Amino acid sequence: MNPKKALLRSVILLSALASAGSLVAQMPSPALLVVLKDEAALAIVDPASGREVGRAPTGQGPHEVAVSDDGKLAFVTNYGAGTPGSSLSVIDLASRKELRRVAIAPRSAPHGILFAGGKAYFTAQGSKLIGSYDPAADKIDWLMGIGQDRTHMLVMTKDMNRIFTSNIGSESVSAVERGGDPPEWKVTHVTVGKLPEAIDMSPDEKEVWVATYGDGAVSIIDATTKKVIQTLDLKLKRSNRMKFTPDGKLVFISDNGVGELVVIDAASRKEVKRMKLGASFTGILMAPDGSRAFAAVSRDSNIAVIDLKTLELTSRIPTGKNPDGMAWAAQRE
Asked: Under a CB-based contact definition with an 8 Å cutoff, are residues 282 and 298 in contact?
C-alpha cells in the first residue's frame, strides 16, 4: 500500500477511536434510561440537557428497566412483540453494550422489574410467577409461583421481606412475604377492582395503591393487614402506571386512554390536577431529589418533564419510537 494512504488510514482510524472514546466518556451521572418498545433499544439520556447520549440493543418489545445499585448495569425485561418474549437484557451503561441476554424460558413475558440486594427481581406474566436474577453468578436463582393470571408489575419493601404484585387477569394484588419457617415465602391474595395494573407503595411502606383500569378506580391496601381500606372512583379511562412522589405527598397516575396525567393528594385522597400530555402516555419516573417527574408520552415519542413544585410541564425530551419504562442511573464506586 502507498505509505501516504497507509498513514491517512491510520489517522482516520485513530480519530474514530478517539471519537468513540469521547462518546463513552460522555456517560452522564445521573442518567435517565428509557426503553423504546418499537426499536428494541434502551436510550441513555442526559436529564440536564435532555440530549440522548447513546443507545444499547435489547430483545424484542422491551417494557421495563431497572438499574444496579452502583449505576453501572441496566436490566431490561424483553416482554416480546407479537409473540411473548423470554429473556432479560443485561446492559453495560458506560459502553452501551448488551453484555448478555438471559434466557428465562420456559417462563415467558417478563415485565415488571426492580433491583435490590444485588439481584434483579422480575415478573413472568405468561407463567404466573416472579423470580430473581443474580448478575454476579449469571443465573436465575429464585422462582416463586404466584398462581394468578397476568402477574404484571411488582414493588418491594426496603428490607426485601415483602413483595406486592399486580395481577391483571385475576383482579388481585399478591402479598409475597418472607417467613422464618418453611415454606420460606407466604402468599396472600388481596381482591381489588377490575383489571389492576399500575401499582406503587407509599414511601413509608404503610400503603400499597393499585389502579384498576377495568373500572377507572384505585384500590388502597393496608400493607400490614393486607386488606383494601379505601377505593377511589377516579373515572380513569385506561390507567397503567402509578408513582408516589419521593416525599409521599402526591400520587401520579398515567391515564393512557386519554393521554392525561392525574395527580392525587395522598393524604386527603382528593384529585389535585389533570394534565393533558399527548395522545397517550405510559411510564412515570420520579427524580430521587424530588424536583421533577418524567412521563413517557409513548405515541408522541417524547418524555414530558414536570416540575414537582409547580406541577407544570416544563419541557419535553425527544426519544425514539414508543418510549415506556424508565429508570434513574447514578454511578457510584
From this structure: yes
